[in-house]
Amino acid sequence: MQIMMATFFSSLHNCIDAIDGTHIRVKVSKEDVSRYRERKSYPTMNVLAACTFDLKFTYVLPGWEGSASYSRILDNALSREDNLNAPQGKFYLVDARYMLRSTFLTPYRSIRYHLKEYSQHPPENPKELFNLRHSSLRNAIERAFGVLKNRFPILAEMSRYDVETVSEIVLACCILHNFLVDFDLDEEIIAQVDRDLMNNEPDHGLANGAIARGEDGRRGEILRDSIAAQMWNDYITRH
């Protein structure tokens, strides 16, 4: 994947990692159930994480209630003492549930995004090409979550543990996951996760995701448009 980033995805060379959230079941008091219940019928914890394109977690923030918005959790990650680092001139790839910023690039809304949508019909314009390549790289975080949950089935059986305990277990599993990526990468698990993702594309918030706001949002739009234009120029030259 690093070779891909250096060549085919050269216009994304300033990309650091991919970011997303995942929900883990959790036990909470009756008073807190509504805060921890999102679209599911049971309470969950929303875990924000960043990972490299070889599926290693570089930042994990557990503990947030399931109903918390993705942008709100990201804002907290940026302001904490153990904060998510977003260096100037670099950016992360995020889906449309996050706010577009100069350091967090979302896909174009109302434009094809899922990889399956491009399997028979190649991209036809700069925005579609950007979304295709964004999706190809950003799905590293979905693959990492998939491998994590397959490696550690306990993450699907957390409803008897409280928030603090679940947070500690999630962090421990992520640390072990990173070790195993280097020393015991299970290709069968990765292949199964890839099949599941291809057959069950998750919701990326493209229909009603967050809209860019403010000056930094405008900088994000300009950066995204310039990357899309560069990608398209390279693409049509080679094709």
From TrEMBL:
Chief site of localization: nucleus
Any GO MF annotation of the entry: metal ion binding
Example of a GO cellular component annotation carried by this entry: nucleus
**Source organism superkingdom:** Eukaryota
Pfam families the UniProt entry points to: DDE_Tnp_4
Ranges of residues in domain DDE Tnp4? 19-178
Return the InterPro entries for the record.
Answer: HARBI1-like, HARBI1_dom
Q: Where in the cell is it found?
A: Nucleus
Asked if the Swiss-Prot or TrEMBL record annotates the protein with the keyword Repeat, the reply is no
Keywords of the record: Hydrolase, Metal-binding, Nuclease, Nucleus
The protein's required cofactors: a divalent metal cation
The similarity comment for this entry is:
Belongs to the HARBI1 family.
Protein name, please?
DDE Tnp4 domain-containing protein
Annotated organism of origin: Zingiber officinale (Ginger)
